[in-house]
Design brief:
Length: 405
């Protein structure tokens, strides 16, 4: 049993200021998108109106977090506790007492997102490790203190990096870096990788910077950094591949890719594993993002001609909104349409927009996840990724066979 200890926190407010590249920077009021959790008769719910923008009121009091953890445990000792939230964990004032209480000297603790910006001394990580922290997700951006200061707003980058080193020596540390062209890629990225390798980090997740709506900025705040043109998907994949070849630790990327497991959509390069899937008896159109589309086409190609894959002008499928459907050419869309499970739009609106040419279409939400990105696969084996995909695609195929044309 794994338990989440959610400490809350607000992006930009409970993390000592927005990083220059933050997805939430400049977000004002956002109208509800609609989602799978909404009631059929009403667009808008807690998830698509608040949670999607990390709309916490602030950090939760320690007592409230502990009460929530106790309720989830139901009297049992968990196998692991993950401390996470909407702010930077290093800024949570009760992080150490929380770790001490949930760890109890016996339960391993994983720290979700932290950048170290809130640490005030160079050895705070020592006490956290003593209380059971054995896994950390650390946003490093760069090991160059000047770059951290300028682009992350880190007022004490040396302190953050000193604590990162301690974590690396004692824990499984997976670092993350949003890649901004001409800033922390190239020579700077190579230096960061060498430093992390020397520290003992287990892996580095490279994240492609998003600066436009089609790249995933759906909160009305694009561009985040005017004048910056992000790496193309092809450039980004090449950077991930080359960086992984040059270093001993795991290097993955999001939205793609993982050179070790082949994720996302490892099935595309393992046609022999596709034979483990159920047979496809009916047809449908699968709507997805532009990154996933060619990989999905490669997978369905091995199953015949019953399914066609159509991409909207959005890189990632789970960030598709109603505007993407409005701009979609319906000429090649079949009578049954499968959309990503986490599509951010309301059912009634989706059906109306996808039937605007006069053809009444059946719209079905597929599984929430058909694969994993680099944030998940970095700690997985190739077999685990394939097993996950086979299970998810099996669910998708069952939906097509039940409701397809």
């Amino acid at each position: 049993m794994e338990i989440l200890a959610d400490v809350g926190g607000r992006p930009g407010l409970d993390c000592r200021g927005f990083c220059s590249y933050c997805y939430f920077k400049g977000v004002k009021g956002v109208q509800p998108f609609g989602c799978k959790y909404c009631m059929p008769f009403q667009k808008g719910c807690d998830y698509c109106s608040r949670a999607i923008v990390e709309g916490y009121p602030g950090f939760k009091p320690l007592d409230a977090v502990l009460f929530d953890v106790a309720q989830k445990c139901m009297g049992s000792i968990p196998d692991k506790v993950t401390i996470s939230g909407g702010g930077d964990l290093s800024c949570y004032p009760d992080l150490l007492p929380l770790a001490r209480m949930v760890g109890q000297g016996m339960v391993p603790i994983s720290l979700g997102y932290t950048s170290g910006k809130g640490f005030k001394s160079t050895d705070q990580a020592v006490e956290l490790v003593k209380e059971g922290v054995n896994e950390v997700s650390f946003t490093v951006f760069s090991t160059n203190p000047e770059l951290r200061h300028k682009y992350m707003g880190d007022k004490s980058p040396e302190i953050a990096l000193a604590n990162l080193k301690i974590f690396c020596e004692s824990c499984d540390v997976y670092c993350a870096a949003v890649l901004i062209p001409g800033v922390n890629d190239g020579v700077e990225l190579e230096k960061t990788c060498r430093d992390l390798e020397e520290m003992g980090a287990k892996g580095l997740i490279l994240m492609r910077f998003a600066n436009a709506r089609e790249q995933g900025l759906i909160l009305g705040n694009a561009p985040i950094i005017p004048g910056i043109v992000p790496h193309t998907v092809e450039e980004f994949q090449r950077i991930v591949t080359e960086t992984a070849k040059q270093h001993r630790f795991r290097v993955t990327g999001t939205p793609l890719w993982d050179p070790v497991t082949g994720a996302p959509f490892a099935l595309a390069s393992h046609p022999e594993a596709i034979s483990r899937l159920p047979g496809l008896r009916r047809g449908a159109t699968v709507i997805t993002g532009s990154v996933a589309a060619p990989l999905l086409r490669a997978i369905f190609k091995h199953m015949g001609e019953k399914v066609n894959v159509v991409a909207v002008n959005k890189d990632v499928g789970c960030l598709i909104t109603i505007e993407d459907f409005k701009n979609l050419d319906l000429a090649g869309v079949k009578g049954t349409v499968i959309i990503p499970g986490r599509t951010l739009a309301h059912e009634k609106e989706i059906k109306r927009v996808l039937s605007r040419d006069g053809q009444d279409r059946t719209v079905v939400r597929g599984p929430d996840r058909l694969t994993v990105d680099g944030e998940m696969s970095i700690s997985m084996k190739a077999e685990e990724v394939l097993d996950l995909e086979i299970e998810a695609f099996g669910e998708l195929i069952e939906a097509i066979n039940a409701l397809g044309v």
